[in-house]
Amino acid sequence: MKNKSYIGISFIVLIFGIWAVPKIVDRFKKSDLTEIGTVPEFELTDQNNKKISGKDYLGKVYVVEFFFSTCPSICPIMNQNMLKLQEEYYGNPEFGIASVSINPEYDTPQVLKEHAEKLGAKHYNWHFLTGNRDYIHNLAMKGFNLYAGENKNVAGGFEHSGLFALVDKDGNIRSRKDNYGNPITYYDGLDDAGVLAIKEDIKKLLAE
């Protein structure tokens, strides 16, 4: 009787193993998202006056935007779309957002804290970052290849990209490919389709 029970248990374990192994393998398999490059090293100060670097985001899937709190044009749209990502992944400790101000002289930690509260940013891994202006503009344009600069002829006095960068748990910028097989590199932070795409791809990276 004991031998029959043992054989029965062994059979169940074997069947479970056959089912579970592919699931475990899938959990650690890379998704179809392309690696664009490594996030440049950075260290900035967040809305809580805490130093935040790329190392604080390791082990997390996060989205990067360059903005400024007094922007009268595209920033409010970008921030609202970041709120959609927060809502989708709220409470997930492996998700984060980095909102980097390109007008740091005005956007002090206190100003960014008030901005975050007014916006409704509640995710503990959503950092509004400030620092030296040249350092940040360099980070945007040379580190991420995303435009950011001062222009006194435009509303708000600054120009910048409306794109979001998606970063995986290892600190690599990742993206999907377009219909022709080319990496899109960044996601449109002003467009519903771009927000839907990055939502889907965050999910893929969280599963890696």
UniProtKB/TrEMBL annotation:
Residues engaged in binding Cu cation: C71, C75, H160
Residues annotated as domain Thioredoxin: 33-207
SUPFAM superfamilies: Thioredoxin-like
Transmembrane segment boundaries: 6-25
GO MF: metal ion binding
Record keywords: Copper, Disulfide bond, Membrane, Metal-binding, Transmembrane, Transmembrane helix
PROSITE patterns: THIOREDOXIN_2
Keyword Phosphoprotein among UniProt keywords: no
Disulphide connectivity of cysteines: C71-C75
Keyword Membrane included in the entry's annotation: yes
UniProt family annotation: Belongs to the SCO1/2 family.
Entry protein name: SCO family protein
Lineage, top ranks: Bacteria, Pseudomonadati, Bacteroidota, Flavobacteriia, Flavobacteriales
